[in-house]
Specification:
six-stranded antiparallel β-sheet, five-stranded parallel β-sheet, Rossmann fold, 4 domains
Length: 518
């Protein structure tokens, strides 16, 4: 007997777990709650042997409870099932937040039968179960169920299961609320950023008044009104992406997507999928269909940064998109048409890559329709102080500081430096200096060692020119001997001098050639 009861309990436990797993899968299947409520009620009816089931919600604006979804009720019956807060059993559950269990509705005077469904139950007794759906302590709905009364069935067990399902629905509602809030926040942020970018990246607002930058502004103004492909060239850190933003947000596509792709940052094994998308099952890990960047940019602009690092195979596919405005997803056969403006950028010498057959010449001509060269910072010295002032204000605000000025010594150091990292390097230097200063002034010693002059760092040269040249020459001779394992003829050739001249220098600097022989 004990064994039989134990088996019955285990079977009940198994189907309860199956019920909850199935409901969990349904709730996870769609972000739209309306699409999953009806299937949940159907599953509950099947497992709990329900006659009817319903999900009731409350309209706070008018204080009325209504049936959002139902199993076993007609449309007219659902429409009639409306209650005021505290009215009937359902209204009382909403008011108190406590579940209600009515074993026999015929013996409960508070049971109102507003839907009229009980008129179909004259030959059977019905049990009514209703549990609240709570979110952060507030009743947002109720899960109700009708089943034929059976004194052998544990209604408390059914109430427990309904309560668990109600909690799962509440959690699903919360997740969907968060997703909706995030979506609206992203929309608002996107709108704000677009407006900000329209202002920030206008040619007259890009920081810099030098003659070379004025030429860039003129080119941006000319090309923005067209759909021409643009190739932006310049050293790393010069602000090529800002130019691309300016072109897009001053074009007729400004309200359409601006999609950025860094061709150097993505592994070759995934970049094709990133650009063109893939079909489900196209390769290991492709568990669902995915749109590529070109498809996402449809109607707008795609910015291909570091285009010179694109592999030859992908160059061919990109050429087709530029020519035909079409492509296929990885693993797909359907041709997809897109209307996308292409802006590319590179800091590499494409002409040299073409000679080495690392970059396709036909793709180069397709991209180079309207070239824009962004000058390095060393060629626009007059913009250095404008940029420095902007970055001082920016990082003072971010770090709650009040930096008032840049010292003359620091200005001289910045103006004499060659800035190999361009604007990006200048920004990093100013950020560092803002963090280091303690008297609201940026001094020379706040700048990185690479900017320090001999006078500022106290490392002025005190030797003779002839001595320095001799030391350099000696080091070059020794390095050549090391590279050639002591072979003086090869070492001389390596340095571009005759063997006689090389021998004279070995003798002059008293170099032991044997030390470098095998």
């Amino acid at each position: 007997m004990l064994t039989t009861n134990k088996r019955q309990k285990e079977r009940k436990k198994d189907w309860e777990i199956s019920l909850l797993l199935e409901i969990s899968r349904i709730l996870d299947s769609s972000i739209d709650l309306k699409k999953v409520v009806d299937p949940v009620l159907v599953v509950l009816a099947r497992y709990l042997n329900l006659v009817r089931g319903s999900l009731a919600l409350i309209d706070r604006t008018i204080g009325e409870i209504y049936i959002e979804a139902a199993y076993g009720l007609s449309a007219s019956q659902r429409e009639r099932g409306r209650y005021r807060l505290g009215e009937g059993i359902t209204g009382e559950v909403f008011r108190t937040g406590k579940p209600a269990l009515i074993p026999k509705v015929s013996e409960e005077p508070r049971f109102l039968n507003k839907t009229g469904s009980r008129y179909d139950d004259v030959e059977r007794e019905i049990s009514f179960l209703c549990v609240p759906i709570k979110l952060e302590g507030e009743v947002i709905g109720a899960l109700c169920a009708d089943r034929v009364y059976d004194d052998t069935v544990s209604l408390e067990r059914d109430m427990h299961l309904l309560s668990i399902v109600a909690s799962m629905i509440a959690q699903a509602v919360r997740l969907r609320q968060l997703a909706e809030e995030s979506y609206h926040e992203l929309l608002e942020e996107n709108t704000r950023l677009q407006e900000e970018l329209k202002t920030k990246f206008k040619p007259d607002n890009i920081i810099g008044n030098s003659q070379s930058m004025q030429q860039v502004y003129h080119l941006i103004e000319q090309v923005s009104e067209s759909d021409a492909t643009v190739l932006i060239r310049g050293e790393s850190g010069t602000g090529k992406e800002l130019i691309a933003h300016a072109i897009h947000y001053h074009s007729a596509r400004a309200d359409k997507p601006f999609i950025r792709v860094n061709c150097a940052a993505l592994p070759e094994s995934v970049i094709e999928s990133e650009l063109f998308g893939h079909e489900k099952g196209a390769f290991t890990g492709a568990v669902s269909l995915r749109k590529g960047r070109f498809e996402l940019a449809d109607g707008g602009t795609i910015f291909l940064d570091e285009i010179g690092d694109l592999s030859p195979a992908l160059q061919i596919k990109l050429l087709r998109v530029l020519q035909e405005k079409e492509f296929e997803r990885v693993g797909g056969v359907k041709t997809i048409k897109v209307d996308v403006r292409v802006i590319a950028a590179t800091n590499r010498n494409l002409e040299e890559l073409i000679e080495k057959e690392l970059f396709r010449q036909d793709l180069y001509y397709r991209l180079n329709v309207f070239p824009i060269h962004v000058p390095p910072l060393r060629e626009r010295k007059t913009d250095i102080l404008l940029l420095a002032d902007y970055f001082v204000e920016k990082y003072s605000r971010l770090n709650n500081k009040r930096v008032k000025r840049i010292s003359t010594q620091a200005i001289d150091m910045m103006m004499s430096y060659h800035w190999p990292g361009n604007v990006r390097e200048l920004e990093n230097c100013i950020e560092r200096a803002v963090l280091l200063t303690r008297d609201d002034v940026i001094h020379g010693h706040h700048l990185p060692p690479t900017l320090q002059t001999a006078e500022a760092s106290g490392t002025t040269f005190k030797g003779r020119l002839e001595t320095v040249i001799a030391n350099v020459e000696r080091d070059l001779v020794i390095d050549a001997l090391k590279s050639t394992h002591g072979n003086q003829a090869r070492a001389a050739k390596l340095l571009g001098i005759t063997e006689r001249k090389f021998g004279l220098r070995v003798k002059k600097y008293r170099i032991d050639v044997k030390r470098y022989s095998p």
